[in-house]
Design brief:
Layout (H helix, E strand, L loop, with lengths): L2 H7 L3 E2 L3 E8 L2 E8 L8 E5 L5 E2 H7 L5 H9 L6 H16 L6 H6 L12 H5 L3 H21 L7 H5 L1 H14 L1 E2 L5 E3 L7 E2 L5 E5 L5 E5 L10 E2 L11 H8 L9 E3 L9 H6 L7 E3 L6 H13 L5 H13 L2 H10 L1 H26 L10 H25 L4
Parallel strand pairs: 8-11
Antiparallel strand pairs: 1-4, 2-3, 4-10, 5-7, 6-7, 9-10, 12-13
Length: 401
C-alpha cells in the first residue's frame, strides 16, 4: 500500500484540494504539501487522527522504566533539553527495525533518504563552511553523537541497528526536521502533516485539539496550485537565520526572508552582554544593508567591556539599556559612533573576504562528486550579497562614499 492510501485508511482527511507534489531540490527528491483548489482563510486542509501522531509525552510513558539509562546519559552530557526529541528518535528506530510489520511502514517508506543537514555532511562539506556555520554544524553533529551513545543503554534494539549509520542518521533527521514543539510542552510528529515546506511568510497553521488530533488550517486566502507552507524555527527570528536552517533542516531560507545573522560570535559572552541583546537570533543584517539595533548595542558594549578607562561609561550604558533610558543610550552611541562603525566595518570586511575565498576555492571542485556543493555555494553567495550591502551602508556612514 502506498503512503497516501495508507493515510486515508488511517483516517487522515485531506480537504480544500490538499495533495502532495514532488520536486527535485538540491539533488534530493522532495515531496511537499500543496492545494489544487485553493481555499479561504480559516479553512481546514488536513486532519490527522491523534492515534497516528508520535508524541514525546506518550512515547515517554510507553517506554517508562526502559530509557532511564539513556536519559541519565543525556543529562550527564548536558542534553536535558532534547529528551523529547530523543524519545521520538528511539520510537522511529523501533518502528524502522520492524520493517513492513510496523504500522508506520508506508509513511517511513515515503520519507527522504538523502539529506543536506549537518549530521549528513561529509568532511569535504565541513571544510567548505565559514566559522559560524561550521560551529552550528559541529554543535548539531556533537548532539547526534550523544544520541548514538545514549542509544547503547537501550536494550530493545538490535546491535545491527545501533551500528547502522544510515539508519541512525535517517531517524535523527526525521525527528529534527519533522517534529515540532506544542504549546502544552510536548513534542509531536504527525505523519502526513510533516510534508509542509518552510516559508518565512507561511500560509498554514498546525494545531492540536484536546484529543491530540492534528489539524492544519489556512492562515490566509490561498490560490489554486499554491504550495502550503509552515515557518520553521523556534522563533520568528530564528526562521530568518539561513545558517541555522541549513545546519538543522538542510535547506536555505527562501527569498522572503528579510535578514541573515551578522556572524558576530562570542564564545563566552558575559551575562551583561547577553542582557544587552547578544543572541544570534537577534543579531541581524538585513538584505537592504540595514543593521539591527542589537548589533549596534552589542558591538559598542563588547568594546566598552575591554576598556578599563571606560568602566563608568559601560555601566551607564548597561543601566540605560536595562531601565529603557533611550536618550542616555543614544548619547553614548553618538559619542562612540565612529569607533563602533569602524569596528563593525572591519568585521564585515573580514567575514566577506573569508567567505569569498572559500567560494573561490569551492568553485574549483566538481559538483558531480560533491552533490551538496551547489547548496553551500548558494549559502555563501547569499551571505556575500548581504554583507556587501551592509559594507556599502557602513562606508557611507563613515563618509567613505
Amino acid at each position: 500500500m502506498d503512503f497516501q492510501g495508507w493515510a486515508g485508511q488511517c483516517g487522515v482527511q485531506a480537504e480544500n484540494g490538499f495533495y502532495l507534489a514532488g520536486d527535485l531540490v538540491d539533488g534530493t527528491e522532495d515531496y511537499f504539501a500543496a492545494t489544487n483548489s485553493g481555499g479561504s482563510r480559516g479553512s481546514r486542509v488536513l486532519f490527522v487522527p491523534g492515534e497516528m501522531v508520535l508524541s514525546a509525552n506518550a512515547i515517554g510513558g510507553e517506554y517508562q522504566g526502559y530509557i532511564d539509562g539513556c536519559l541519565g546519559f543525556l543529562s550527564e552530557k548536558g542534553y536535558e533539553k532534547v529528551y523529547a526529541q530523543f524519545v521520538i528518535f528511539l520510537k522511529v528506530l523501533v518502528e524502522y527495525e520492524q520493517g513492513a510489520n510496523s504500522p508506520y511502514y508506508p509513511w517511513m517508506a515515503a520519507l527522504p533518504r538523502a539529506w543536506n543537514t549537518a549530521v549528513s555532511m561529509d568532511v569535504f562539506c565541513m571544510n567548505c563552511l565559514p566559522p559560524y556555520l561550521k560551529y552550528l554544524c559541529q554543535k548539531e553533529r556533537k548532539q547526534y553523537q550523544a544520541f548514538k551513545e545514549a542509544l547503547k543503554k537501550f536494550d530493545y534494539l538490535s546491535p545491527d541497528t545501533k551500528r547502522n549509520e544510515d539508519v541512525l542518521r535517517f531517524a535523527y533527521n526525521v525527528v529534527f526536521t519533522r517534529a515540532f514543539p506544542t504549546p502544552d510542552g510536548d513534542y509531536r510528529l504527525a505523519p502526513a502533516a510533516d510534508f509542509f515546506n518552510h516559508d518565512f511568510l507561511d500560509n498554514v497553521e498546525l494545531t492540536y485539539d484536546e484529543f491530540g488530533n492534528c489539524e492544519v488550517y489556512l492562515k490566509d486566502d490561498v490560490q489554486p496550485g499554491s504550495a502550503l507552507t509552515l515557518s520553521y524555527g523556534d522563533s520568528t527570528l530564528e526562521s530568518t537565520n539561513p545558517s541555522k536552517l541549513l545546519a538543522k533542516y538542510g535547506f536555505l531560507s527562501d527569498e522572503n526572508t528579510p535578514a541573515t545573522y551578522c556572524k558576530i560570535f562570542f564564545k563566552n559572552p558575559s551575562e551583561e552582554l547577553k542582557a544587552i541583546g547578544y543572541d544570534p537570533a537577534r543579531m541581524l543584517f538585513y538584505k537592504d544593508g540595514g543593521i539591527s539595533e542589537e548589533v549596534w548595542d552589542v558591538m559598542l558594549y563588547s568594546r566598552l567591556e575591554k576598556k578599563r578607562d571606560q568602566e563608568n561609561v559601560k555601566n551607564a550604558f548597561y543601566q540605560a539599556h536595562i531601565s529603557g533610558d533611550q536618550q542616555t543610550k543614544m548619547e553614548i552611541h553618538t559619542q562612540f559612533q565612529e569607533q563602533t562603525t569602524k569596528a563593525l566595518l572591519r568585521h564585515v570586511e573580514h567575514i566577506y573576504i573569508e567567505v569569498h575565498e572559500l567560494t573561490v576555492k569551492m568553485n574549483t571542485f566538481d559538483s558531480s562528486r560533491h552533490p551538496r556543493l551547489p547548496l553551500l555555494l548558494r549559502h555563501h553567495q547569499m551571505v556575500l550579497a548581504t554583507f556587501e550591502k551592509v559594507k556599502d551602508n557602513l562606508e557611507r556612514m563613515l563618509g567613505y562614499k
